[in-house]
Amino acid sequence: MASASLQFFAFILALFGVFGDIAATLLPNWKVNADVGSNIITAITQMQGLWMDCTWYSTGMFSCTLKYSILSLPIYIQAARTTMVLSCILSAFGICITTVGMKCTKLGGDSDSKSHACFAGGVCFILAGISGLVPTSWYTREIISNFLDQTIPESSKHEPGGAVYTGFISAGFLLIAGVIFCASCFKKQQGAWIYPPKQHHFPSTEQESNAGYNLKDYV
Fold this sequence. Notes:
This protein is an alpha+beta fold. The chain has helices at residues 2-26, 75-101, 111-148, 162-194, 205-218, and strands at 31-33, 44-48, 52-57, 62-66, 158-160. It has a 5-stranded antiparallel β-sheet with strand order 4-3-2-1-5. The chain is elongated, with a radius of gyration of 29 Å.
């Protein structure tokens, strides 16, 4: 019962991770213009994402421009696009597989099949978490390095936006969920090794006595 409750808790974490992963991939505020220098009060906020660049005005209006050309983008944005989409796909697969493998569901067949499905879903969550953690870390590193670069003017410096933090938190949720699912399956397999099923051994006394009886007949 405790293992089923733990799996359900991991499934809830994975759901938050999937929704956060999708939101981080689509949000345009991966980096926001930094309010530094003499012009701190600005009426325009510029945001840059993986798929579009947006400008927010103090009047409440938005203006977004899609990034159509892939080859013209920096390499870290291209890598972030690919890995974030891969993370969303892997996490979606993990949700489908763990739904079958969880103990609180009636899908997946016997306990061994459900355990294997649960382990496969946990691996998908771990891979999705890693795929989401790599681009957010790389993107943050590029923002910080450009911010500390003295040759870049202050008007062109940026700070990490809300999408980056959402990606970090979502990757953490997916990693924790994947570890919990895999650990629950390992615990069950370890118990099977420690307490193997009892095998019934038939005594061989009757065979020995019959063999001795047959030898006496020949004497």
